[in-house]
Specification:
Distance between the termini: 29 Å
Helix content: 55-70%
Shape: globular
Number of helices: 6
Structural class: mainly alpha
Length: 162
């Protein structure tokens, strides 16, 4: 593949990622939550009560950033921190009543953004897109020249299917 095509692919991936993040933030603007905070809430909806550090690792967010984002979610009334019963140094994250009430609304808005992003792609094209993105992720976590080094915080992507 020629250099120009490679550059176009790279720019298209970065642009799509940026536009998707901006669309998510726009869809949730009246709730005053960001894309990063939506990702944290999504993780807690799936696995409530996990540690703050663990959430950060799962969504690839450094400790300072996860701390600031959780602080904001606490301030907005979406999340509360509790001391771990097994280890008092550990802060576990729990959803509040407020975030449980808004869960369906958050999910509907998120699905609407994805529907808009995928409009014009039939089901087979969506499956192909997912397979291609999974392959790219796997390639970058592999042993190639530019794959993630063993000490990297990057983990193997969760291979998803439609």
């Amino acid at each position: 593949m020629d250099l120009l095509t490679n550059q176009k692919i790279t720019l298209a991936l970065f642009d799509a990622s940026r536009l998707l993040r901006e669309a998510f933030e726009h869809a949730h603007r009246d709730m005053k939550i960001t894309w990063a905070q939506t990702r944290i809430l999504g993780r807690l909806y799936a696995q409530e009560g996990i540690g703050q550090v663990e959430v950060g690792a799962q969504i690839e967010m450094d400790s300072m950033t996860i701390s600031r984002q959780v602080d904001k979610l606490v301030e907005l009334g979406f999340v509360e921190r509790r001391v771990g019963t097994d280890d008092r140094r550990l802060r576990r994250l729990y959803l509040t009543r407020h975030s449980r009430i808004l869960r369906d609304d958050i999910e509907q808005r998120s699905q609407a953004v994805l529907k808009q992003a995928l409009s014009g792609l039939d089901e087979e094209q969506q499956k192909t897109l997912l397979a291609l993105l999974n392959t790219m992720s796997e390639n970058l976590c592999g042993d190639g020249e530019y794959g993630a080094p063993p000490s990297s915080s990057r983990t193997r992507p969760q291979v998803l299917s439609v």
